[in-house]
Description:
about 140 residues, mainly alpha, 5 helices, 3 strands, about 5% strand, globular
Amino acid sequence: MSIRTAALIFGVIYALIGVMGFIPGFLQEVPPDAPDLAVDTGYGYLLGLFPVNVVHNIVHLGVGLLGIVAFSSLGFARNYFRVLTIVFAGLTLLGLIPAEVSNTTFGLVPLFSHDIWLHALTTAVAGYFGYLAPAREPETAL
């Protein structure tokens, strides 16, 4: 798979996840033992697994839209994945720290539970396309 195509696929998936987070039918209520958030608007578990809130959904939409736009050129797509690698590695580490301040990013975005492994997987895939995948296409957009 080309780097540009991967950016488009990532973009579409993350944009869909962001949209799904705004649809109540995809969210389950937060369990009583879940950490409190300063921004609790839209706070729920997407598909019953992934804690999200309105800020998290907006971030997913932003990551998705950037991925779709990154499809426009090889350089943009590779840099998109390089930035994702760094950002999602940081989010994975924050989620692993048991302090509520870090795994909720100061109450703004939930980064705990299944989000940790999802962010780690995103880091690994983005790292491959950002740093290791061979460029099999010209630098210019089609």
